[in-house]
Amino acid sequence: MDDPRQLIRVGHSPDPDDAFMFYALAKDKIATGNYRFEHELVDIETLNRRAFSGQLELTALSLHAYAYLADRYLLCHCGASMGDQYGPMVVARKKRPLDEIAQGAIAVPGTLTTGYLVLRMCLGVAVDHVVVPFDRILDAVAAGDYQGRPIAAGLVIHEGQLTYAEQNLELILDTGRWWFKETGLPLPLGANAIRKDLDAETIRDVHRLLKESIEYGLRHRCEALDYALQFGRGLDRAKADRFVEMYVNRWTLDFGPRGRQAVAQLLARGHIAGVIPKLVVPEFVL
After folding, report:
1. In the predicted model, is pLDDT for residue 220 greater than 90?
2. What is the pLDDT of residue 282?
3. Which of the ends of the chain has fewer CB neighbours closer than 10 A, N or C?
């Protein structure tokens, strides 16, 4: 018999922090009432690109990508990934000045990622880049090559921020630290977003259930972490716990006024830097 409940298709990254957030929804730990959730786990740049067609009712988005999708999606108050004086990192085989690194090709996980946006803002110039799947960037940097293209450095997101030293790579730039020095604000990297064309009640209910899922994970940390470890790509439990703590925290429960200010600043500064074509004022679920 067909399930009469309204289908909500959810997209998020196959990473420990996202898995932790969505644990309760994925494993039916909370009552979802008139809704059933179908989860699709793909990398963030793929989600960014898919959002242009509005396939998913609820999706993780890079806040850089949101600048091009504000007509289609509303930002959720909960579900954010914020780097509080840390964030995506530029790493290389040898310690070198950033301006020297920028003279060669940098492996990036996608041009709609927030890491790429902040890197462009930091350098103040166009970046000679090669798009590489996020989970292959460290290997490409260590090898100095990706599919025949020389690689000088890599922009690392997700758990690579904790593991780059295991491949004898050096930190060149932490974009979260750079952003904090510039603004005094945390760096808003990703958010969850709900499609605008849903009715107001559905938007409100889905937003509430997302927050309940995050709250459940934080209250039942051990079991949520057990689930998240499936997506750790070689992280041991201690590193996975640390990574989850970095990106599932008080900012994840609610952006709050300071977090919303950080989002507005990111979009405004991205526009001033010439990376984002038009000024975008973020719109959140009421």
Report:
1. yes
2. 98
3. N
User: Which of 9-23, 65-79, 121-135 is most confident?
Assistant: 65-79
User: Distance between CA atoms of 115 and 129, rounded to whole angstroms?
Assistant: 13
pLDDT in tens, 139-189: 999 999 999 999 999 999 988 898 899 999 999 999 999 999 999 999 999
DSSP state of 92: E
What is the distance between the alpha carbons of residues 203 and 112, in angstroms, rounded to a whole number?
25
Residue 152 falls within a domain, yes or no? Answer: yes
Of the candidates 156, 183, 210, which is a domain's last residue? Answer: 183
14: containing domain: 6-82+187-272
d(CA 230, CA 16): 8
Assigned domain for 139 exists: yes
Burial class, 218, CB count within 10 angstroms (exposed 0-12 / middle 13-18 / buried 19+):
middle
Query: What CATH code is carried by the domain that includes residue 163?
Result: 3.40.190.10
Question: Is 129 noted as a catalytic residue in this protein?
Answer: no
Name the active-site residue from 158, 207, 220, 271: 158
Q: Of the residues 161, 183, 205, which one is the last residue of a structural domain? A: 183
Alpha carbons 258 and 238: distance in angstroms, whole number: 30
In this prediction, residue 1 carries a pLDDT of 54
Same domain, 28 and 114: no
- CA distance linking residue 20 with residue 46, whole number of Å: 20
pLDDT at 232 over 80: no
